[in-house]
Structures are given as structure tokens and as C-alpha cells.
Design goal:
Elements (H helix, E strand, L loop, with lengths): L12 H25 L3 H15 L2 H4 L2 H15 L6 H7 L5
């Protein structure tokens, strides 16, 4: 506190992103260090299984309704049936 007021440092979006990136990088390094010393074959197998599951094509896991919606959107874009960004922004402004 300073003169009865709490001083709060406001971070810019870029500063916040940089902090997030550093935090993720630190976590990755911790995992790499842990993994490099890991001897338990069953844990290694579980990690490999997780890696495979996480890298599978996300399209396969989408419900048909979502796939159809995406396909309709692509067809509309291909046919130049697009709305201006400003119109979409105005429509969804309260959620942005």
C-alpha cells in the first residue's frame, strides 16, 4: 500500500502472453528433465499412448452435426456467401 492506496501493476496483453509462454516453457523443461531420468517402462508406455491419442486427427472426434456445420461454412466461403467482419463483430459485440 502507498498513501492508503493499493498499487496494482497493469500488464499489457503482450506481457501476459510472455509470462504464460515462460510458464509453459518451464513446465516443459521440468517434464523433459523428469522424462530423461524415468526408468519405469509402464509409465513410458502410458506417455506414448497419451501422445498418440493427443496427436490423432481432431476431425474424427467431432460429432457429425459439427462436421456438417463446418462443411456448410466452407461451401458458403467457396461460393462467396460471406458476411463482412464488421457485421459479425457488431452481432457478437456483447460477448467480445
Amino acid at each position: 500500500m502507498h498513501n492508503g492506496f493499493i498499487i496494482i501493476k497493469c500488464l499489457t496483453l503482450i506481457e501476459v502472453i510472455k509470462c504464460m509462454n515462460v510458464d509453459i516453457l518451464n513446465k516443459k523443461l521440468e517434464l523433459i528433465q523428469w522424462l530423461s531420468t524415468l526408468e519405469d517402462q509402464s509409465i513410458i508406455e502410458k506417455l506414448l499412448k497419451l501422445q498418440k491419442e493427443e496427436t490423432e486427427d481432431w476431425w474424427i472426434s467431432l460429432p457429425n452435426e459439427e462436421k456438417e456445420s463446418i462443411d456448410r461454412g466452407i461451401a458458403q466461403a467457396d461460393n462467396n456467401e460471406l458476411e463482412p467482419h464488421l457485421k459479425a463483430r457488431n452481432l457478437y459485440e456483447k460477448w467480445l
